[in-house]
Write a structure and sequence with these properties.
Blueprint lengths: L14 H8 L6 H5 L5 E4 L3 E2 L9 E8 L4 E5 L2 E9 L4 E7 L4 H4 L5 E11 L2 E11 L10 E4 L8 H14 L10 H6 L5 H9 L4 H31 L13 H7 L5 H16 L4 E6 L5 H14 L3 E5 L3 H16 L5 E4 L5 H13 L4 E4 L13 E7 L6 H8 L6 E6 L5 H7 L4 E5 L10 E5 L4 H13 L3 E5 L14 H12 L5 E4 L5 H13 L4 E4 L12 E6 L7 H8 L10 E5 L5 H12 L3 H12 L1 H4 L19 H17 L6 H20 L3
Parallel strand pairs: 2-3, 6-8, 10-15, 10-16, 11-13, 11-14, 12-13, 14-15, 17-22, 18-20, 18-21, 19-20, 21-22
Antiparallel strand pairs: 1-9, 3-5, 3-7, 4-5, 5-6, 7-8
Helix pairs in contact: 6-7, 7-22, 7-23, 9-10, 19-20
Length: 683
């Protein structure tokens, strides 16, 4: 059996089981042996029945004492059996698993693992997992791997499939890491690592295995990103900048830039002076002034004879950028154009013509900017706003519209620097780490539904003062299976029952672009008091008169999304508030809500989000063209990441193309990994 073979060659994997595994992306034997556990259960401590701890999960050996009995209680089937180890007795109980009665053999000894409770004076093991006593067990008496399994497949079956695959490829797991790195970083060999990550021989074996696999995963990622960065940062720029005078644009902005903004502009101009293509990411918290910085750079590019294009993720945000930028640039004699799917055909044709002829100097839009019929005259700068909303291919498509234009990427989703180095390894990073003076802290509160009466009174109070409010729901329509607020139902209830005297409207992603724009225009003008919305207003929307943000079912949103939503208020001079409504009781949700109430610092929040949700869910890693992390956790593995980055830099500096014999297998592995992942990415 070879790693490249179909999983059908593995013992006990037939057509049905293969299809189940295919749904998880497991197609080859290699995929199966590298499908690492998501967690583990320690079942190595098998105790006697007189030592079990009530209220906790215990593993114990016991003999089936008598025949199991099956009871029918209303719609539930309950199987019960008495278990003994000679020192004590316990009752095994299984709910809605009638087949258990036919599996347990009277008089036979098994190992059981389950939670122990006392009910009606009896000590019971509830729904315990079990198997006959055997020395080579995969499921009992050891540290047991737990996988994400497909529907209708048990953990036992998955463990068996992986064990069969590992035994079938004995000696076939190649060592692609250079021996010099293995020795320097004190890593175990790959065969040992793969075996022990699935079925650890000991605690020490597990930690050795995990460290090796985390290191190799991060090393390959860093080497790939260094190669990407090397391919772009060395390009000579065809954009020639001679005039760096920013006085006109700074006057037109009408406010003084912060020191943080000035520092970042300095970094941008330093890039331009190098004579190579700029590829830079600007990170800045909500309201830190990234757009103003981008406008200063765009002004310089345009005044030197080139076009600038800005791509936003939504029509609403693109329209807002167009409105704000054209107001400033128009006063400076710079022509702006808008290209979105919502622009009418006649207007769009005129804009396309002006863009192709160079009459339009600042072009703003959505994905429509990368369509084939959009031709630029002399593109010098490409700006993408809220980069994490775009695929890596979309950014590349826009860049290819010009002859190696400079590239500026902006995000208001603060990313821990470690994660930024991974996600944006091909970009230099600038951070705007201060807010403009006068911005007030937004007071944030977490409440349950019992506060609705007071909450609605608070909305009326703010509106009576001439202010406006957002009310955010996680869904557009009602769903019988989920007790969540929906935009449409809630809007009707607010209009007819709760706020009959207020002007209430809604906005959501299924509305046509011109409908969304009309609602946002009315809200900006103050003609709507309460705007009910989904996360369509999450980024970029700027209505300084809105002072109250209420987020329903707040437990349904990640920390970064909550922070982005909160950033829609507090944009004016008036005191603003954010109220998180949730009845959630689970630990992660409560910790998320507490974090929001404790801090307004987006970078602190992003670190906590990474800790609570893990790197895979932080935001769509697939969008960046990078493989999902199989085993590394960027929050827990920061020390290993640093080692991997040091090693990657050493390899890149000493053998950039990885032509040395000792590096060839590692290079081949990296190429195979990333070529395969890229094929799976959809634009």
């Amino acid at each position: 059996m070879e790693l490249g073979d179909s999983i059908r060659v593995v013992k006990n994997i037939g057509e049905t089981r293969a299809k189940q595994l295919n749904r998880l992306g497991i197609e080859k034997v290699e995929d199966l042996v590298e499908y690492f556990p998501r967690t583990y259960e320690d079942r190595s401590n098998v105790v006697a029945l007189d030592q079990i701890v009530k209220g906790e999960v215990n593993s114990f050996k016991a003999r089936v004492d008598g025949s199991p009995e099956s009871l029918r209680v209303r719609t539930m089937t309950i199987v019960k059996v008495r278990l003994t180890d000679g020192k004590g007795f316990i009752e095994g109980v299984w709910y809605n698993q009638p087949y258990i009665k036919n599996i347990l053999t009277p008089g036979r000894e098994y190992v059981f693992t389950g939670k122990i409770n006392e009910r009606y004076g009896r000590i019971q093991a509830e729904n315990p997992d079990f198997e006959p006593v055997r020395e080579d067990s995969l499921n009992m008496g050891r540290i047991v791997p737990v996988y994400t399994v497909p529907a209708k497949m048990s953990q036992k079956t998955m463990r068996g499939c992986i064990k069969d695959a590992l035994e079938g490829i004995d000696g076939e797991i190649e060592e692609f890491m250079p021996r010099s790195i293995i020795n320097k970083r004190n890593l175990c060999d790959r065969r040992y690592a793969v075996n022990n990550i699935h079925f650890p021989e000991s605690d020490e074996g597990f930690f050795k295995a995990r460290r090796r696999l985390v290191f190799e995963e991060l090393l390959m990622l860093q080497l790939h990103l260094l190669q990407l960065k090397g391919n772009v940062t060395g390009k000579v720029s065809s954009v020639s900048i001679r005039d760096y005078n920013t006085a006109p644009i700074l006057d037109a902005l009408g406010f003084k830039l912060t020191q943080a903004q000035e520092n970042v502009i300095g970094e941008l101009f330093a890039d331009l002076r190098k004579g190579t293509v700029m590829n830079r990411l600007i990170q800045g918290d909500v309201g830190s002034g990234k757009t103003a910085v981008a406008m200063v750079l765009a002004y310089v590019i345009i005044k030197n004879g080139y076009q600038t294009v800005l791509m936003a993720p939504t029509d609403v945000l693109a329209n807002q950028h167009y409105k704000n930028i054209s107001k400033v640039f128009g006063s400076l004699g710079i022509r702006c154009a808008l290209i979105t799917s919502g622009v009418r055909k006649k207007e769009k044709n005129a804009v396309l013509s002006d863009t192709a002829e160079g009459k339009a100097q600042m072009i703003i839009g959505t994905h429509a900017l990368i369509q084939e019929n959009v031709v630029y005259n002399n593109l010098g700068l490409v700006i993408t706003d809220e980069q994490h909303r775009f695929g890596v291919r979309q950014r590349e498509s826009l860049e290819k519209k010009g002859k190696d234009p400079h590239v500026l990427v902006m995000t208001a989703t603060p990313i821990p620097r470690t994660l930024a180095l991974i996600l944006y390894g091909d970009l230099d990073i600038s951070i705007i780490d201060a807010l403009p003076p006068g911005r007030q802290k937004i007071d944030t509160f977490a409440v349950d539904r019992s506060y609705y009466k007071r909450l609605y009174a608070f909305v009326k109070k703010e509106v009576a003062k001439g202010r406006q409010a957002y009310m955010i729901c996680p869904m557009i329509e009602e769903n019988d299976k989920m007790e969540l607020r929906s935009v449409l139902t809630y809007t009707a209830e607010l209009k007819e029952v709760i706020f009959p005297g207020l002007r209430v409207e809604c906005i959501h992603g299924r509305m046509k672009n011109d409908e969304k724009q009309e609602i946002m225009t009315l809200f900006e003008k103050g003609d709507i008091d309460v705007l009910v919305s989904t996360t369509v207003i999450e980024v970029g929307i700027n209505v300084p008169n809105a002072t109250l943000m209420i987020i329903e079912n707040a437990e349904r949103f990640g920390l970064s999304a909550l922070h982005q939503l909160r950033g829609r208020v507090g944009r004016g001079s008036e005191k603003s508030f954010c109220v998180l409504v949730s009845d959630a009781k689970n630990k992660t949700s409560l910790e998320r809500l507490k974090t929001m109430c404790r801090t307004n610092d987006g970078f602190v929040i992003s670190e906590k989000d990474l800790e609570l949700r893990g790197p895979g869910d932080f935001f769509g890693t697939r969008q960046h063209g990078l493989p999902e992390m199989k085993i590394a956790n960027l929050y827990k593995d920061i020390d290993v990441l640093k080692e991997a980055q040091e090693t990657a830099l050493f390899l890149y500096n000493t053998d950039e193309k990885m032509k040395k014999n000792e590096n060839k297998l590692l290079k081949s592995r990296i190429l195979r990994l990333f070529e395969r992942k890229i094929k799976k990415i959809c634009l």
